Each structure stands twice: as C-alpha cells, then as structure tokens.
C-alpha cells in the first residue's frame, strides 16, 4: 500500500509539472501578462467575475491564466479563493438608476428618455475574421465617448407611471446569502436571482432559449439593457450615513412580458430581471427570461411543465461548479464499485445462459 501511495504521489507531481509546461506553451513566445488578459480578454474576465461572485479583474485574469483559458476552472479557482476572504460587512443596495452608462439600449421605445447608447458591442459587426488582428496591424481608434452620467431613468419607470407594468418588488427584508447558506427550496425570488447570477451562462442561455420557443410563458421584449459603473456604498455606524468605497461595472437587463391578468391582477406587463458583474449582456438577458419563467406561481399562471418553470430543476442544475464536480468525479478511481457491478453482470449472464440451456433441453 505504501509503495502504491508513493507511486501515486510521483505521478501526480509529474502531472502538475507537465500541466505547468503545457500552460506556458512555447518558451520562445512571450508569456501572457495579467494586464493583457484583463484588458484584451475582458469579456472572459467579466464572466469569471460574475459566476465566481468576486469583482476583481486582476484575480480573474490570474485564474484564467492558471486555468489555461478554461473559464469554468477559472471560476472554480475564484470561488475557492473567495472563501478565504474576511467579510467586513454588506453594502447598501446599488442604485442602477445612477449608473454611468457606456451602453444603454431599449427594444421597446425608439426615443427612450436619456437616449440610446450603442456602446462597445458585436451587435453591428459582420462576423468576418479580421486578419489585421493576426498581423497585429493598427486598429482604427474610435472616438472616446464619456460614459453617460447618471441618473438615467429606467425605461420601465415610464410604463409604471401609467400603471402598465407591475410595480417593482422590494420587500425590504434582508435576502438570504447563497454564498454562506446552502440552497433550500422553495426559494424566494431574491435567492433565485442569486443562483441565476452565479449560474453557468450556457445553461441559463439554453433555458432562456427554450422559453422563447414555447416552453414557458415568456414572450419578452428587452425593456432596457444597460452597462456601466455604479458606486458601492457601505454604512458606517459611527458616522450614521453611507460612504462610497468604490465602483463596480454591472450589466442590468429588464424584460417586459405580456400578462393577461388573473383573478387578483389586471392585464399588464410583468418584469424579468437580470444583474451581473461586468459586461455580460448575454447572461443578463438570459437570466431575466428565466427569472420571469420561474415567477409563474406568484403571478397565478398555469404550470406548463416547461423545464424553465421548474424551480428545482433550474436551481439545482444551473451551477457549473457543482455540475463539473459531479460530472468529473466519475473519471476518478471507482475500481471497487465497478468490480461489484462486473460480478453482478457475470452472474446475470450465467443465470440467463442456464435458463436458455434449460429451455433448449425442454424442447
């Protein structure tokens, strides 16, 4: 047993060394710096921060480098590091109406108060490979527009002014913290939104797509999508007021969904909501669609049996770290389990052969 353990340790050490060599790549090529990753692979960094629940571009860039570009592995590294950090307190809710927007669009109103700001987006590109990037050619510089200063009114606020959309929900109760307490079902909306914000982008995207294809009651419009920075404030008991301690970049999406009304509610529009770290608009839109699909019970709608409406299915499977851990554990040694199943199959085959022989003899 001791020899086997020592042999296993040597193999693992060699695997680590090989991994480090593969991570570095060709030594003749300059190593990738963290500032390069943070600056030029910003969308990957944003996803790692969002699903890792830690806003730190430098650490997210380090995790991506260490994980060789595997974003789920990088998210795992960030979450593991996050658990070692002390917690000094909780910030007050951020005011996204005061966001300094670099991107703000609405699919519901052409002339939205405050204007539409296209911002840095792939939406209007032709999706053609730019070989100038491979040749490291000069890229035309865009005019540097200043972020739109806040406050910028939310588009849904104008619908709410006429009673055309449900009121924004805010109970004032302190939500449970999914990073400190295990998920429990049934979950309230605040907990569902936390799980979706940390959920795997691909999984949430697939569920959101299913709702648009009829597997859920969400015929949605993007009421507003905005990206920008907001101040983070924390209340200082000794001072008696809140003090801004920094800024974070956020993506916020509010979808507007038709609602035919129920016994207690008049026909109106309802809301879906998504809020994530960084520029992660695909995730925010998908999150808002799934959020709305999960609200069928509180809105008095029928359960159509769609996957996106099943709270237990969605929340129990959207986390990519849990999914990865369970999926990849099957590549670890299961020798004893397999041998027992192997013996069982051999026994069943022997019994089946005996029964076949008995039937043949009886004939």
Task: Set out the fold topology.
Blueprint: H1 2-24, H2 34-40, H3 42-52, H4 57-66, H5 71-82, E1 100-105, H6 131-134, H7 155-161, H8 189-198, H9 201-212, E2 220-236, E3 241-259, E4 268-277, H10 281-293, H11 311-317, H12 320-328, H13 335-362
Antiparallel strand pairs: 1-2, 2-3, 3-4
Helix pairs in contact: 2-4, 3-4, 3-5, 4-5, 8-10, 9-10
Quickly count the domains.
3
Element-level helix/strand string? HHHHHEHHHHEEEHHHH
Distance from first to last alpha carbon? 54 Å
Report on the biggest sheet: 4 strands, antiparallel
Number of strands: 4
- What proportion of the residues is helical, as a percent range? 40-55%
Strand order of the largest sheet: 1-2-3-4
* Structural class designation: alpha+beta
What is the residue-mean pLDDT, rounded to a whole number? 87
Low-pLDDT stretches are: 1-5
Q: Bin the strand percentage.
A: 5-15%
Shape, per Cα inertia axes: globular
Q: Compute the CA-based radius of gyration.
A: 26 Å
Helix count, per DSSP? 13
Features:
alpha+beta, 363 residues, four-stranded antiparallel sheet, 13 helices
Molecular structure report:
This protein has 363 residues and is an alpha+beta fold. The chain folds into three domains: 2-82, no CATH class; 96-124 and 145-324, no CATH class; 335-362. Helices cover 42% and strands 14% of the residues. It has helices at 2-24, 34-40, 42-52, 57-66, 71-82, 131-134, 155-161, 189-198, 201-212, 281-293, 311-317, 320-328, 335-362, and strands at residues 100-105, 220-236, 241-259, 268-277. It has a four-stranded antiparallel sheet with strand order 1-2-3-4. α2 crosses α4.
């Amino acid at each position: 047993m001791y020899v086997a353990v020592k042999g296993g340790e040597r193999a693992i050490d060699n695997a680590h060394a090989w991994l480090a060599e593969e991570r570095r790549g060709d030594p003749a090529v300059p190593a990738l710096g963290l500032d390069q990753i943070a600056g030029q692979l910003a969308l990957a960094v944003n996803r790692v921060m969002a699903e890792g629940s830690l806003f730190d571009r430098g650490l997210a860039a380090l995790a991506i480098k260490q994980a060789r570009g595997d974003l789920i592995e990088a998210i795992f590294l960030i979450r593991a590091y996050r658990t070692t950090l002390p917690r000094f307190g909780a910030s007050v809710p951020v005011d996204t109406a005061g966001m300094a927007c670099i991107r703000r669009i609405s699919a519901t109103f052409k002339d939205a108060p405050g204007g539409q700001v296209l911002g840095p987006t792939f939406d209007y590109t032709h999706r053609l490979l730019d070989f100038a990037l491979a040749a490291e050619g000069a890229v035309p510089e865009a005019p540097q527009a200043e972020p739109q200063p806040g406050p910028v009114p939310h588009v849904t606020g104008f619908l709410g002014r006429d009673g055309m959309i449900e009121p924004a929900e805010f109970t004032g109760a302190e939500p449970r913290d999914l990073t400190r307490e295990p998920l429990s079902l049934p979950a309230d909306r605040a907990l569902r939104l936390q799980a979706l914000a940390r959920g795997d982008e691909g999984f949430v995207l697939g569920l959101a797509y299913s709702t648009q294809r009829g597997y859920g009651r969400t015929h949605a419009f993007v009421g507003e999508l905005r990206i920008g920075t907001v101040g983070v404030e924390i209340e200082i008991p000794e001072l008696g007021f809140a003090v801004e301690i920094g800024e974070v970049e956020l993506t916020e999406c509010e979808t507007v969904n038709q609602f035919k009304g129920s016994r207690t509610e008049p026909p109106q529009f309802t809301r879906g909501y998504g809020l994530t770290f960084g520029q992660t608009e695909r995730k925010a839109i998908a999150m808002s669609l799934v959020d709305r699909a999960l609200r069928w019970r509180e809105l008095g709608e029928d359960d159509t049996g769609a996957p996106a409406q099943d709270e237990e299915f969605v929340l129990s499977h959207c986390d990519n770290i849990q999914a990865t851990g369970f999926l990849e554990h099957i590549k670890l040694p299961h020798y004893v389990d397999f041998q027992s199943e192997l013996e069982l199959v051999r026994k069943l085959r022997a019994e089946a052969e005996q029964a076949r022989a008995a039937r043949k003899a009886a004939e």
